[in-house]
Design goal:
InterPro entries: HAMP_dom, HATPase_C_sf, HATPase_dom, His_kinase_dom, HisK_dim/P_dom, HisK_dim/P_sf, Sensor-like_sf, Sig_transdc_His_kin-like_C. By secondary structure, the protein is α+β, with helices and mostly antiparallel strands. It is 56% helix and 18% strand. The structure holds adenosine-5'-triphosphate and magnesium ion. The site of magnesium ion has 5 residues, from helix 8.
Length: 464
């Protein structure tokens, strides 16, 4: 039944206002009625007592029949209430309305008056609400009659009814106003949410250019901000993905073209033995390059999907670094680069050695690609509090400042010549982060680039 925010809020406001107004008005009416009743009763009781004590002090007759009319004349005019003088047996001797017929009265009330008490009774006589107060008339301490005052409560009830009617009108207005306030409030929530829902549906449908207008700077406004951010992020990733796919296709086409070219040449034959050798060597190289690219791509998507688990063990860092550097040394020589290693002995990390090697090879690969012949590439380690930092520094072309923040995010390739598929650094960063470490790049164009890989140490480093 309460399916929308609007109906829930309006319903709650309505019920709350209804309960509050109902409770307050009921308490008020009951209070007013009791106050007036107590007042009336007080007046009648005083009246009856006054008549009683007057009789005892100034009349004092044993025969009540003789003084009944005089008593009535003396006291009936004081109030608007009907006054009666009655014998203890119940015979009405005098009545301010002149009606001497006996009136029904509950026994208890009557008995108490005859026993000498001032008694009050409230009830209905002939369908009319009345209040009756009876007081004994005494002579020398003996009850010789009863004086009785009786008033209709109809005017009081009338007034209460009038009051009730006005309170109901005011209460209804208050409840309606509260419901209206709830509706207005609900609209400030529900409307923007509806707008956001429609926009989110369009985003889900693939329209990533949708932006949600923001009306208030509240929770709903922040939701709009978040969704807008999400949409722009999705759009950015979408563009990057497209660029990546087209550049990857381009990358894959280069080796494929040369393989195809050589295959055609060899097929057209007859090739010389020299041509055979050259052709097959190039086909071999290009196939390796293709395999490597595909391997990297697969690795990257597995890392992204979180389906790669590290095979970590305590690994001695110096040995691993020497291993990598000696593996890369021949290529450095071929390129005319000076590759040096400056390891610190006795450092142990809890890492997957194969993955760590992959990171270092990738970093060295970049340095080799972007450093001209004659340049220097350096691998250094520094140990700090509980962590070790491996730096790969080169004297290459550097990265322009505008590209620096984007380098290492997925699929980003720089403008520099020899830029590849743009996943090398992203892959490195993922692997380092899986190890609980982080990767930082510093670079100044024309001077060189240094990539820092920080990893937590497995054991505290003992120096000296
Ligand atoms: N040492 C470096 N010197 C200068 N520029 C660099 C260096 N390392 C990375 N870059 C820049 O950062 C970009 C991203 O590097 P990344 O290793 O992620 O991709 P890539 O080397 O282009 O391709 P891949 O490594 O996937 O073959 C490079 O294209 C290049 O522009
Ligand atoms: Mg690279």
């Amino acid at each position: 039944m309460f399916q929308s925010i609007r109906s829930r809020l309006v319903g709650t406001y309505f019920l709350l206002a209804l309960l509050t107004v109902g409770l307050v008005e009921t308490l008020f009416l009951v209070g007013v009625r009791q106050y007036y009743l107590a007042n009336i009763r007080e007046i009648l009781e005083q009246q009856a007592k006054l008549a009683g004590s007057f009789y005892e002090q100034y009349v004092g007759q044993e025969q009540i029949e003789r003084s009944a009319s005089a008593l009535l004349e003396g006291f009936a005019g004081i109030t608007a209430a009907r006054m009666q003088v009655i014998t203890p047996e119940g015979t009405v001797l005098a009545d301010s309305l002149g009606d001497l017929s006996p009136l029904f009265m509950p026994d208890d009330h009557w008995r108490r008056a005859v026993a000498g008490e001032v008694a009050a009774w409230q009830g209905k006589l002939e369908k009319e609400p009345v209040l009756v107060v009876s007081a004994p008339l005494k002579t020398n301490g003996a009850v010789v009659g009863v004086v009785r005052y009786m008033t209709s409560l109809e005017p009081l009830e009338e007034m209460i009814r009038g009051l009730l009617f006005r309170l109901l009108l005011a209460g209804t207005a208050i409840v309606l106003l509260a419901a209206l306030a709830g509706l207005l409030l609900a609209n400030t929530i529900a409307r923007p949410v509806e707008v956001i829902t429609r926009a989110a549906a369009r985003i889900a449908g693939g329209d990533l250019n949708v932006r949600i207008p923001k009306r208030y700077n509240d929770e709903v406004g922040r939701l709009a901000d978040t969704l807008n951010h999400m949409a722009s992020e999705l759009g950015r990733l979408d563009r990057l993905k497209n660029e990546f796919v087209s550049s990857i296709s381009h990358e894959l086409r280069t080796p494929l073209t040369s393989i195809k070219g050589w295959v055609v040449t060899l097929l057209q034959g007859p090739p010389s033995p020299g041509e055979w050798r050259q052709g097959l060597r190039i086909i071999d190289q290009e196939t390796d390059r293709l395999t490597e690219m595909v391997e990297e791509l697969l690795d990257f998507s597995r890392l992204q999907a979180g389906s790669i688990t590290l095979r970590r063990k305590e690994t001695e860092l110096a040995g691993l670094l020497e291993n990598v550097v000696s593996q890369m040394l021949p290529r450095a020589r071929r390129l005319g680069l000076k590759l040096t290693l400056e390891p610190v002995a006795g450092l142990t990390v809890f890492a997957d050695p194969d993955r760590l090697k992959q990171v270092l090879i990738n970093l060295l690969d970049n340095s080799f690609k972007f450093t001209p012949a004659g340049g220097k590439v350096e691998v250094r380690t520094t140990a700090g509090k509980g962590q070790v930092t491996i730096a790969v520094a080169d004297e290459g072309c550097g990265i322009p400042p505008d590209e620096l923040p984007l380098v290492g995010t997925r699929f980003f390739q720089g403008r520099a010549a020899k830029s590849g598929s743009g996943i090398g650094l992203a892959l490195c960063r993922e692997i380092v982060q899986l190890h609980g470490g982080h990767l930082k790049i510093e670079s100044s164009p024309g001077v060189g680039t240094t990539v820092y890989v920080s990893l937590p140490l497995a054991k505290p480093h003992i120096t000296g």
